[in-house]
């Protein structure tokens, strides 16, 4: 996850890069996946509305919008799909501010 | 505490009776006063009958007075700080003012209506106007309530007067101490009044203690008047009210501090043309507190399928300050016309925050979660009110009034802008709007004792800060988190009322009916796309303009004096409300009656009161409503006054809810029983 670097309350840009493992030394970027994000505040049991799933902008970068309704510890759950099938499991980033 | 406030009515109404006797010209004006509920706290000292009976009622909070006012009901969340509702309208739909001064509660959850910062000892009288016709102090659709502050007792035979009283009520082991003092000499007058109250949790009619129903408060008001000549005077008021440890059994939290301070300076010039000009400032600080509540929640952990316990504490402070001024001129420009012009301006600054502290059992606390439930906002309102009253003939009087308010909201909090970006809003800092009101009324005297009043009017009102910018305001009544709508439209109402007044020496009847047809009615509508914020919230609701709503109200007051020493009084109030022609409006009280018999002779008085209400079956379950059963409650009170040389000792004894009935009213949140049987005793010494 490249962004948000400096998360704030409200709407934030979210940017992720996705690389596929070709060999041990070669991790080419890949723009052919779809990504869904679901932010949640684990301790409050709530999420946030109006998030925009990151979509590919080339070079393996995916850009979208993530909303935080308050400060605290957030978890951005990320679901990566390839041709409609889930390829990630239990993947999330923790954002605390 | 005594529930026998009907006495206020008696005193108010009997003063009308007196004024009518003295007013042999038979003008229309005497009957009109019926609409102005008079809660005079100091009667001329020679009028001992009234004083004796009335004095003990000082011991009640203002809520108990309000419950006996025409058309007024109270929304109850705890034993203290009940919220006034007038014919189905409340909060931002009402103008609640103090001597025409604007003041706004600082709690996002309406736990501190302005009336909670005023005590009966502070008050001279309360004036109520219903519907759109209450626009003198601001455009509004539901009516107005103006409380005028007490002044030094200029009728006192001695320059210095004072009194000290103590009251006890058994149901909450409540102690009430009150004092008044004053000094008047030639051009100067000074007065001070104060109250201290401490109440523990009360017991209901089933002998169960209601937890979190305690409260403690102190109130002091001082007034200084300088009259350089007979027609002009300068007045300064200072009022402080502080409540601590106020329990709200119907809510998930209590109040640690609710503190208000008010300063006012007034210049008044009487004569043929009357001028009042006033400057004021008031500030409210309100801190909610959930530290005494058990905030342990059980969360189901989806991955490990086990329950985790979570502790959460919330800090929720709120602040509201208002600075304002007004000038009012009353000009009788010829024999038949009287013109009132009032220009006013006020600026209110409000902010409320919430910080949540979360901790899983056995782990260190998580980083605090902060939000602004009312992002800091400044609202400036400049208004102009004009009213003309014309006496067309001896029988007919016409009143026309209009008001225009220019309103500017400035969102001062950048954080508030960011918060609302979550809902895809790009909030402008500034929003300005004009709201207006126009009313016409006619008073027609059919014959010597019967008269008729009709009013037709229109008004719109500004949405309150919570309705515009509220951010996850938890409503314990329906269980939803409420979110504001920054661009919500004003609420508009067409109002019509008709009243009959009969006034004969032994009997007085006042029957009034009113209709309000509301467009763009503001209410919370569920939004399933926005997740709720708390574990206990059922979902979120966003303030929305509903196309149409309507209310109908009928009020009856009857006073009958078959003998000089006996009075009978009946007060009935009824309201209905519909939204979009179909669903019931939530929080509408059923038919309620208060009937009183009073015997008064010399220094002794006795009063029996019955308060009863029908069941409320017209409910709106979507908004957390349940059917409320009917109830009836009986109260008695007796008082005697001793006079020893220059001092007076008043003693009063009463029983509220004699048969220890377990009941609650429809507007009581959480369906929590009201107090059971209570023995009350009052002693007051005046010098």
Write the layout of secondary structure elements.
The complex is a heterodimer of chains A (97) and B (687).
Chain A: E1 10-17, E2 34-41, E3 46-47, E4 52-58, E5 61-68, E6 73-82, E7 85-86, E8 91-96
Antiparallel strand pairs in A: 1-5, 2-3, 2-6, 4-5, 6-7, 6-8
Chain B: H1 6-22, H2 29-32, H3 48-54, H4 62-66, E1 72-75, E2 83-86, E3 89-90, E4 95-98, E5 101-102, E6 123-130, E7 143-149, E8 160-169, E9 174-185, E10 188-199, E11 215-226, E12 232-246, E13 254-269, E14 274-289, E15 296-301, E16 306-334, E17 337-360, E18 369-391, E19 396-411, H5 414-421, E20 430-445, E21 450-461, H6 465-469, E22 473-475, E23 480-483, E24 491-503, E25 507-526, E26 539-563, E27 566-579, E28 583-584, E29 592-601, E30 604-613, E31 631-644, E32 647-656, E33 678-686
Parallel strand pairs in B: 4-7, 23-26
Antiparallel strand pairs in B: 1-2, 2-3, 4-5, 6-7, 8-9, 8-33, 9-10, 10-11, 11-12, 12-13, 13-14, 14-16, 15-16, 16-17, 17-18, 18-19, 19-20, 20-21, 21-24, 22-23, 24-25, 25-26, 26-27, 27-28, 27-29, 29-30, 30-31, 31-32, 32-33
Question: What does this entry look like structurally?
Answer:
- The complex is a heterodimer of chains A (97) and B (687).
- With 97 residues, chain A is mainly beta.
- Chain A has strands spanning 10-17, 34-41, 46-47, 52-58, 61-68, 73-82, 85-86, 91-96.
- In chain A, the strands form two sheets. In chain A, strands 2, 3, 6, 7 and 8 form a five-stranded antiparallel beta sheet that branches. In chain A, strands 1-5-4 form a three-stranded antiparallel beta sheet, with no helix packed on it.
- Chain B has 687 residues and is mainly beta.
- Chain B has a single domain (6-686), classed as TonB-dependent receptor, beta-barrel domain (Maltoporin, Chain A), CATH 2.40.170.
- Helix content of chain B is 7%, strand content 56%.
- Chain B has helices at 6-22, 29-32, 48-54, 62-66, 414-421, 465-469, and strands spanning 72-75, 83-86, 89-90, 95-98, 101-102, 123-130, 143-149, 160-169, 174-185, 188-199, 215-226, 232-246, 254-269, 274-289, 296-301, 306-334, 337-360, 369-391, 396-411, 430-445, 450-461, 473-475, 480-483, 491-503, 507-526, 539-563, 566-579, 583-584, 592-601, 604-613, 631-644, 647-656, 678-686.
- Chain B has a 22-stranded antiparallel beta barrel. A four-stranded mixed beta sheet of chain B has the order 5-4-7-6, with no helix packed on it.
- In chain B, strand 29 (592-601) and strand 30 (604-613) form a beta hairpin.
- Classes of the chains: A mainly beta (97), B mainly beta (687).
- The A-B interface holds A 8-11, 41, 43-50, 67-73, 90, 96-97 and B 299, 303, 310, 312, 356, 358, 360, 366-371, 415, 417-424, 471-472, 529-535.
């Amino acid at each position: 996850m490249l962004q948000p670097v400096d998360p704030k309350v409200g709407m934030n840009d979210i940017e992720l890069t996705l690389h596929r493992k070709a060999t041990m030394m070669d991790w080419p970027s890949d723009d052919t996946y779809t990504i869904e994000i679901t932010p949640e505040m684990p301790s409050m049991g709530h999420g946030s509305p109006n998030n925009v799933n990151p979509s590919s902008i080339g070079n393996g970068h995916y850009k979208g919008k993530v909303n935080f309704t308050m400060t605290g510890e957030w978890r951005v759950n990320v679901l990566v799909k390839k041709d409609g099938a889930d390829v990630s499991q239990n993947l999330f980033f923790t954002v605390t501010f | 505490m005594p529930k026998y406030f009907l006495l206020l009515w008696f005193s108010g109404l009997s003063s009308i009776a007196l004024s009518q006797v003295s007013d042999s010209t038979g003008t229309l004006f005497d009957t009109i006063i019926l609409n102005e509920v008079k809660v005079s706290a100091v009667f001329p000292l020679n009028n001992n009958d009234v004083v004796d009976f009335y004095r003990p009622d000082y011991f009640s909070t203002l809520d108990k007075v309000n419950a006996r006012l025409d058309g007024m009901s109270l929304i109850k969340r705890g034993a203290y700080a009940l919220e006034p509702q007038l014919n189905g309208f409340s909060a931002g739909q009402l103008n609640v003012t103090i001597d025409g001064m604007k003041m706004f509660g600082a709690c996002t959850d309406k736990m501190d209506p302005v009336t909670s910062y005023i005590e009966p000892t502070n008050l001279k009288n309360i004036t109520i106007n219903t519907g759109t016709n209450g626009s003198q102090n601001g455009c509004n659709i539901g009516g107005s309530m103006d409380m005028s502050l007490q002044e030094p007792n200029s009728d006192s035979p001695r320059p210095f007067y004072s009194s000290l009283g103590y009251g006890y009520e058994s149901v909450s082991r409540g102690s009430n101490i009150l004092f008044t003092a004053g000094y008047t000499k030639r051009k100067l007058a000074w007065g001070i009044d104060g109250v201290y109250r401490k109440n523990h949790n009360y017991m209901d009619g089933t002998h169960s203690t209601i937890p979190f129903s305690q409260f403690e408060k102190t109130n002091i008001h001082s007034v200084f008047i300088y009259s350089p000549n007979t027609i002009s005077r300068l007045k300064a008021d200072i009022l402080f009210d502080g409540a601590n440890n106020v329990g709200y059994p119907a809510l998930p939290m209590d109040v640690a501090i609710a503190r208000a301070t008010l300063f006012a300076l007034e210049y008044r010039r009487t004569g043929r043309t009357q001028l009042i000009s006033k400057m004021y400032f008031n500030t409210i600080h309100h801190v909610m507190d959930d530290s005494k509540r058990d905030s342990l929640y059980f969360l189901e952990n989806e991955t490990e399928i086990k329950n985790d316990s979570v502790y959460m504490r919330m800090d929720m402070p709120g602040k509201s300050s208002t600075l304002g001024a007004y000038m009012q001129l009353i000009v009788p420009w010829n024999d038949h016309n009287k013109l009132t012009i009032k220009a006013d301006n006020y600026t209110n600054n409000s902010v409320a925050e919430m910080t949540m502290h979360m901790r899983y059992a056995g782990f260190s606390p998580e980083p605090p979660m902060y939000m602004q439930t009312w992002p800091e906002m400044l609202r400036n309102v400049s208004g102009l009110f004009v009213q003309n009253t014309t006496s067309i003939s001896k029988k007919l009087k016409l009143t026309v009034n209009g008001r225009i308010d220019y309103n500017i909201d400035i969102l001062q909090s950048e954080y508030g802008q960011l918060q609302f970006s979550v809902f895809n809003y790009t909030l402008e800092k500034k929003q300005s709007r004009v709201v207006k009101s126009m009313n016409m009324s006619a008073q027609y005297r059919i014959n010597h004792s019967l008269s008729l009043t009709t009013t037709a009017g229109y008004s719109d009102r500004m949405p309150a800060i919570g309705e515009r910018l509220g951010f996850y305001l938890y409503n314990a009544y329906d269980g939803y988190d409420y979110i504001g709508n920054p661009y919500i439209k004003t609420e508009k109402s067409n109002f019509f009322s008709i009243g009959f007044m009969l006034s004969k020496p032994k009997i007085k009847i006042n029957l009034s009916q009113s209709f309000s047809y509301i467009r763009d009615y503001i209410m919370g509508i569920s939004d399933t796309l926005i997740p709720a914020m708390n574990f206990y919230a059922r979902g979120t609701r966003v303030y929305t303009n509903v196309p149409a709503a309507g209310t109908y109200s009928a009020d009856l007051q009857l006073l009958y004096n078959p003998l000089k020493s006996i009075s009978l009084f009946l007060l009935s109030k009824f309201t209905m409300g519909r939204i979009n022609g179909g669903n019931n409006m939530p929080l509408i009280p059923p038919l309620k009656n208060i009937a009183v018999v009073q015997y008064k002779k010399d220094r002794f008085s006795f009063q029996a009161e019955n308060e009863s209400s029908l069941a409320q079956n017209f409910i709106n379950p979507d908004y957390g409503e349940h059917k409320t059963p009917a109830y009836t409650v009986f109260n008695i009170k007796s008082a005697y006054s001793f006079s020893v040389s220059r001092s007076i000792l008043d003693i009063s004894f009463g029983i509220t809810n004699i048969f220890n009935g377990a009941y609650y009213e429809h507007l009581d949140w959480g369906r929590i029983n009201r107090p059971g049987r209570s023995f009350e005793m009052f002693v007051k010494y005046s010098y």
